[in-house]
Amino acid sequence: RCVVACAGPYAEYGEGVLRACVECGTHYVDITAEIPWVETMLGKYGDEAAKNGVSIVNMGGYDSVPPDLSTFLAAQRMRADGETLGRFEAFIGGDSGLPTGTVNTMVAGINQVKGRVLRAVTLGACGTPPAPAPEPRAPYAPKSESSTMQRNLMWSLVPGFSSMGRQVCAPHFMAPFNVHVVHRTAAAEGYPGLQYRERLKMPCGPASLFGLLPTA
């Protein structure tokens, strides 16, 4: 048995479903990209899920699976040829829309930041109340991948010209999340320390002149 949870924002709606799956011995899959929520859930329910034989699969949506699966298949192919995958670039088309849940998650995040800023400016008179003490979190990607992951994230957020793809690229909005996904799989499947770039393809023309800036 498996439950696929597709209703976000998961920080608002997700925990009850995940908890019920863990308690009932049912595998759980979602399509979230809310890394803090995922790490909190792994910290709260990860041990119990393992004890009950329950698999918790986060980031199972179309935004995250293609880059992760493509990287994994490339690593497998190179391993079969006696080589190790050292660098992978994912190029994402710019014609996809945003699901409603993703939009709601982004709006909620913006509102939280605005609330904290307002509270700081008004010395606590207005804005978001202080957050409760954070719950224990388990890192989604292993700590051994942290330094490489941060470098990959930085370069994925820089617009420019990709020498590998030979095309102008912009930052992809899912890169901050998918970098975690790719590194989690890389560490588990034997190709850690991977250089990973996730880029949004840009059309040719005057609007893409900023791409003359080379990036790593």
Automatic annotation (TrEMBL):
One of its GO terms (cellular component) is plasma membrane. It comes from the Eukaryota. Gene3D superfamilies: NAD(P)-binding Rossmann-like Domain. Signal peptide: none annotated. InterPro entries: Saccharopine_DH-like_oxidrdct. Coiled coil: none annotated. One of its GO terms (biological process) is glycolipid biosynthetic process. This is Saccharopine dehydrogenase NADP binding domain-containing protein. It comes from Zooxanthella nutricula.
